[in-house]
Amino acid sequence: MKPIGILGGTFDPVHFGHLRMAIECLERLALAEVRLIPLYALPHRQPPRTAPKHRLAMLKIAVGTVDNLKVDDCELRRKSISYTIDTISTLREKNKTMPVCLLMGTDAFNTLHTWHRWQSLLDYVHLVIAERPGVTPIPEHAGISALLDKHAVDDATVLHTTRNGKIFRLQIPWLDISATRIRDMLRMHHNPAYLLPDGVIDYIHAHHLYANS
Questions:
Q1: What CATH number should be reported for the domain holding residue 93?
Q2: What's the CA gap between 166 and 123, in Å, rounded?
Q3: Residue 190 falls inside a structural domain
């Protein structure tokens, strides 16, 4: 059974960095699909600047008809603090055997110890860490280093033959794009072309988003 991938984020706004990571993981790991999950609100951080309905709409525009990239609004429907452990445990209740890969960048992995019930994540999913080519960061937190030492695998096929519990590092082309930079550009009325899909830019202008962010 092919695994599915899940990629969470505020997507405020979604950009080509998010989308390229999703496609690289989809194709190179031979996933059945990647579900992009916009978060409602993050613990200990300011809420997203843009309303959930707009972030969801932009994500749907960005994904468009790309095969096997899906948008999942499960966390927006909960309308509460978004804890990844809640999402993956709910997913497990619906499908107890399908392998699931939680996709993340190195920054997210290196701060995994700040996540709610982070020690339990591998009870539900595999972790896939998307890294810059030629760069293999070493986590500074002892608990994260120990987790990596214990669960890391070099063969991606293991993600297909086991349900959960492995960590795989995947080096992908890295697009140095940030949503913060895009918001700043829009606030200053600069052109963000080639950083995010044209349809998303059109939506932003049509709804006057980020003009004062």
A1: 3.40.50.620
A2: 10
A3: no
Q: Is residue 165 part of a domain?
A: yes
CA atoms within 13 A on the CB side of 104: 17
pTM of the model: 0.95
> Which residue has tokens 């760069």?
135
DSSP characters for 70-106?
EE--HHHHHTSB--HHHHHHHHHHH-SSS-EEEEEEH
- What is d(CA 35, CA 52) in angstroms, rounded to the nearest whole number? 17
pLDDT band at residue 213 under the 50/70/90 scheme: low
- Read off the pLDDT of residues 42-99 as tens digits, 9 standing for 90 and up: 887 788 989 999 999 999 999 998 999 999 999 999 988 889 999 999 999 999 999 9
C-alpha distance from residue 112 to each of 56, 69, 84, 93, 122 (Å): 25, 25, 11, 23, 12
Distance CA 187, CA 181 (A): 10
Domain that holds residue 33: 4-177
Query: How many structural domains are present in the chain?
Result: 1
The answer to whether position 149 is within a domain reads yes
CB 205 within 8 A of CB 185: no
